[in-house]
Design goal:
Elements lengths: L4 H8 L5 H21 L2 H18 L9 H25 L25 H20 L2 H12 L4 H8 L3 H23 L7
């Protein structure tokens, strides 16, 4: 998440419209990360709202010890992890039965930089849809590791620190998730995708 430091300083000074500009500049990234972690568009919208409530409360005290984008990423991950823990507790008590399939906002499906042939586009979109569907079937703790490590590009140590587990646990979860995803995607290639 790239954020102009001048915009952050403008928010800290209380300049008119600076906070709105900051939210507009970062909203898509925060929502996309929330959607990947939570696999539910409604929960992702709630998480995004909570993230920006925290930003409004904390931007004045932001000390700049790290890049603002790094701090915002961390806040987003923490909000999502809190929601996942709450969801797990609700499932244990029978309040929540399941989750919505994983998906990316349509504007993030720009997977190809050049002009590919139509059949290449169809194959790429099919593989992306199968990958998203497979990712949605993983348990939350495993899916979270995949999202943070493979999609968000955090290091194993960063993922371990965020989740409060050892690096070995992250590596094991990631290895098992990759094996499961390969199997699920291979199995799904033999049958057509269900209409969503």
């Amino acid at each position: 998440m790239d954020v102009d430091p001048a915009l952050v300083r403008a928010c800290q000074r209380g300049e008119p419209n600076a906070l709105d500009a900051l939210i507009r500049a970062t909203y898509a990234d925060v929502y996309a990360l929330s959607r990947r972690m939570l696999a539910d568009p409604d929960e992702a919208a709630d998480a995004t709202q909570e993230v920006f409530v925290r930003v409004m409360r904390s931007v004045i005290g932001f000390r700049g010890e790290s890049a603002f984008g790094t701090w915002l990423h961390r806040v987003t991950v923490n909000v999502c992890l809190t929601m996942l823990r709450k969801r797990s507790r609700q499932r244990e008590t029978g309040v929540v039965a399941g989750s919505t399939p994983f998906g990316l906002p349509d504007d993030e499906m720009k997977l190809i930089a050049t002009e590919p042939a139509p059949d290449e586009i169809a194959i790429t979109h099919d593989l992306a849809a199968r990958s998203e569907a497979a990712l949605a079937t993983l348990p939350e703790e495993t899916r979270t590791v995949v999202v943070l490590r493979d999609i968000e590009g955090l290091s194993t140590k960063e993922v371990a620190d965020l989740l409060g587990v050892t690096e070995s646990v992250v590596k094991v979860r990631l290895h098992r998730a990759h094996a499961k995803l390969r199997s699920l995607i291979a199995d799904s290639a033999s049958r057509p995708l269900e209409a969503s």
